[in-house]
Amino acid sequence: MTAIRPVRKAVFPVAGLGTRLLPATKTMPKEMLTVVDRPLIQYAVDEARDAGIEQLIFVTGRGKSSLVDYFDLGFELEATMEKAGKSRAALDGSRTTPGELISVRQQQPLGLGHAVWCARHVVGDEPFAVILPDDLMVGGLGVGGALRQMVEAYNQVGGNIVCAAEVPADKTASYGIVDPGETRGNLTEVRGMVEKPRPGDAPSRLAIIGRYILQPAVMDILDAKETGAGGEIQLTDAMARLIGRQPFHAVKVDAVRHDCGDKAGFVLANLAIAMDNPELGPIIEEYLASR
Ligand code: UTP
């Protein structure tokens, strides 16, 4: 058996237009929208670091430079704060070390598969993670983040892994859906995948959510730039082609998922995370009780 190669790199596709959150996303990248006290992208980067990721690869587009700037050293800000004797602890997660972050451009939003393909030269010939920051995942107590749990599963079985969760039967058309094989613990063998099937056509209710660990062979498949559902180059279609050639599993992680890509999910994420915050929780609860 060939050795399982470690996952050191994570791709963050952040070139989408975020039309469901307009007008907020007209000039502000969706991933810079704040949930309680930090932008969505920072939750995603924190999760990657918690999973041992060393190389962050942002796939950005026009108008998205603030995502890269955010992770720079805030030199003037920090110097001024230091002079004033103010703590800079709040800035800790927002700095990257030299070379930790690389960004590439997706010139046109042709789909998630295309966004991932844009990172191919930086990914090179090694396995990599993909994190969609608008799926904000809060890991269960003491088990680490969603990606860390996926990396632990990957270290057992290797190959390709998608993060999956059961969704209501009438919601399958919003997700890539897994055709499940054998299940052992939290791991289910993937026999096939369908992008956005109508409820009657869905092979299960097991939906793929925004975390993946993939082998570099997926880039060769994406090279063909075949379009699928919605006329977009779909990551799900490319992944489906790896099934049978390489191990492929779906893992159910112990984490709460907030879909921050639409308005209701975004507001609920703010509410849930604020309520879990010891300083803010009582204030929100008191307000809600008064309504
Ligand atoms: P979404 O479809 O949720 O994002 O894509 P979107 O297109 O930005 O949002 P709406 O539907 O218009 O509101 C999932 C992820 O894939 C990225 C998005 O940035 C998001 O993180 N993506 C999608 C790209 O980077 N490029 C694309 O061409 C498409």
In words, what does this structure look like?
The chain has 291 residues and is of the alpha/beta class. The protein has one domain: Spore Coat Polysaccharide Biosynthesis Protein SpsA, Chain A (Alpha-Beta Complex), CATH 3.90.550.10. The protein is built from ten helices and 13 strands. It has a five-stranded mixed beta barrel with strand order 8-11-9-10-12. The chain starts with 8 loop residues before the first strand and ends with a helix. 39% of the residues are buried. The mean pLDDT is 94. The chain binds uridine 5'-triphosphate. Uridine 5'-triphosphate (UTP) binds next to helix 4.
Element layout with pairings:
Blueprint: E1 9-13, E2 34-35, E3 38-39, H1 40-50, E4 55-60, H2 65-70, H3 75-83, E5 101-105, H4 112-117, H5 120-123, E6 128-131, E7 135-139, H6 146-157, E8 160-166, E9 176-184, E10 187-195, E11 206-214, H7 217-222, H8 235-240, E12 248-251, E13 255-259, H9 263-275, H10 281-290
Parallel strand pairs: 1-4, 1-6, 4-5, 8-12
Antiparallel strand pairs: 2-3, 6-11, 7-13, 8-11, 9-10, 9-11, 10-12
This protein binds uridine 5'-triphosphate (UTP).
